[in-house]
Write a structure and sequence with these properties.
Layout lengths: L9 E5 L4 H11 L3 E6 L11 E3 L2 E2 H6 L3 E5 L5 H10 L5 E4 L3 H6 L4 H5 L6 E6 L14 H8 L1 H4 L17 H24 L3 E6 H7 L2
Parallel strand pairs: 1-2, 1-6, 2-5, 6-7, 7-8
Antiparallel strand pairs: 3-4
Helix pairs in contact: 1-8, 6-9, 8-9
Amino acid sequence: MGSGPLDGIKVLEFTQILAGPSACAHLADMGAEVIKVEPPGGEPWRVAQEFIPGESKWFHQLNRGKQSLVLKLDEPEAQEIVHRLVPEVDVVVINYRPDVAARLKIDYDSLSALRPDLIYVDNTAFGRQGPWEHRPGYDIVAQAASGLMASEGKVSLEGQPQMIASTALADYATGLAMAWGTCGALFHRERTGEGQYVESTLLQTAMFFQ
């Protein structure tokens, strides 16, 4: 939080692991107030190479500059808290599986009814159309499905393509795309007063690199 081009913008974040958290870290770096919602046990990335229980350098790097809100979102009381917050929020960022948001009543239709000019940024593995729309997916899956892994040219002794291990390419690039899309939607709202539904996918980002 602090000064920057997004000073005064409030973001409510429902994300875990890499792509979504990195997107919201970029928004926080630009001055947005980011409130990250986590389950009572914390998100899984807290225990990735933790240096004390429940804290890891991975988590710190991806969640710098954010505030934290602990909610058990499958409980009606938690959903009520979210619905009270949304009218004061400019942006919602989510990277849950496509079926989860509606079940938890944090989908676009539910939240935009509370704030019509809301910007809702929704990242999935494969998008919301097609035979894979409900499948979960991580960086390594997007690398494989897009052909990015095969095009790298690294293979096992058995001839199988090997993942690009230097960095989570699809995840981090999707985080940049999400932050970029958020800024574009905020600019559009500034000019028109209209909210936006912004969609990104790990597969789309990985295909871009092809």
